[in-house]
Amino acid sequence: MIPRKMYRSVLAILLAYVKLRPQMWMEIVMLPVSQGLHLRGALALLLALPVASTLSAGAALAQTKITAGMVAHGPAQWPQYIATELGWLKQDNIELDFVTAGGSGAQQLAAGALDICHSGYPDFARASLQGAPVKIIISDIVASPYAVFAKPTIKQIADLKGKLISIGGNNDITFIYIKPFLASAGLKTSDVDFIFAKAAGDRFSALAAGGIDATILNHPTYSKAVSLGFSNLGDTKPYAEDIPFTVWAANMPWAEKNRNALTAFARNYRRGVRWLYDAANKERAIDILMKYARQARKDLEEAYDYQVTKLKLYGLDGDVSDKTYEKMAEGLVEIGFIKKPFPPKSAIFDGSFVQQATN
């Protein structure tokens, strides 16, 4: 004798199933009474149903959570914010968990605390070449977004001699950008003093507080420096043409286990950039960035005008061409990390994800 409670449970499961499979309901009700369709028969029928295939379908739709590190929220992650807010990642069963990693992103990525991470390309190139299970998978910002700002009394690059300048680090992409900037006025890096802060927001705060003489800033801190009357000594892009800024890198053991999800991430990056470059989407794009960057709308409008309209800083395909890799390698030489002959591109970059994203 099967207990009444168990009878109700089994019947509830059976009814839930036939709601999904209406034709099964007709099969059940058409069974003749003479066959004795009672609880044991219903239970046998339930067990005979293709439950395994139902579970498999659910597993195929399981969501992949990607823990994505970054130095700080801002315009650099614009394509990912767009893909999130417009539901594209959700359509691909991906959930992005944005984590502020500061200057230790490469270390956290190598340790497996992050699945992917966004930062200047030298951070991950060094990790790869030192044997960490890390490789660049997407090159997104293809040129320098920075300008150098200084106290109002400093009017030209040559005036920086003997001054205290804040950059991201002595092995950071900002060092690669500021070195030729100083050289344009006959200055060497040894002619100035450096202090380090990875995030542009921290460098701006130090400048605003009078703790440093100059620093290297991108939007939205770029706009803030202008509004406060600091001297804009010029953009760094003309002095470091074709040297990429930021990239996305992955923990490769995780990447190999989640290849489909990471390929979808790369595909949505490309889709996000195309959407961002459509001027009709400007206002919506700024709305989206405001949600994450939490900056004044005016500053983000200027970021759009500068990075999207003027400089077109976001790479359309996310790939690293051989020419671009040469520039990246030259940058690594500038910070004293490698020497010629350069290691092969495959030592730091796995292009298979962006290549599969085109298919």
Label this structure with key terms.
single chain; 359 residues; alpha/beta; D-Maltodextrin-Binding Protein, domain 2; five-stranded mixed β-sheet; 17 helices; 10 strands; globular; disordered N terminus
How are the strands of the biggest sheet laid out side by side?
A: 2-1-3-10-4
Within the CATH hierarchy, at the fold level, what is the topology of the largest domain?
D-Maltodextrin-Binding Protein, domain 2
Helix content, binned percent = 40-55%
The CATH homologous superfamily of the largest domain is called: Periplasmic binding protein-like II
What Rg do the Cα atoms give? Answer: 27 Å
CATH domain class of the largest domain? Alpha Beta
Instruction: Briefly note the structural class of the backbone.
Output: alpha/beta
How do the SSEs run, as a string of H and E?
HHHHEHHEHEHEEEHEHEHEEHHHHHH
Strand content: 5-15%
State the helix count.
17
In short:
The chain has 359 residues and is an alpha/beta fold.
Task: Please outline the helices and strands.
Blueprint: H1 4-20, H2 22-29, H3 39-48, H4 51-60, E1 64-70, H5 78-85, H6 88-91, E2 94-100, H7 105-111, E3 116-120, H8 121-129, E4 134-139, E5 147-150, E6 164-167, H9 173-183, E7 193-196, H10 200-208, E8 214-217, H11 221-227, E9 231-235, E10 246-251, H12 252-257, H13 259-277, H14 282-293, H15 297-310, H16 322-334, H17 352-357
Parallel strand pairs: 1-2, 1-3, 6-7, 6-8
Antiparallel strand pairs: 3-10, 4-10, 5-8, 5-9
Descriptive report:
Helix 9 (173-183) links the parallel strand 6 (164-167) and strand 7 (193-196). Residues 1-60 have low confidence and may be disordered. The protein contains 17 helices and ten strands. The protein has three domains: 4-60, no CATH class; 65-143 and 244-357, 3-Layer(aba) Sandwich (D-Maltodextrin-Binding Protein, domain 2); 147-239, Periplasmic binding protein-like II (D-Maltodextrin-Binding Protein, domain 2). With 359 residues, it is of the alpha/beta class. The protein has a five-stranded mixed β-sheet, with helices on both faces.
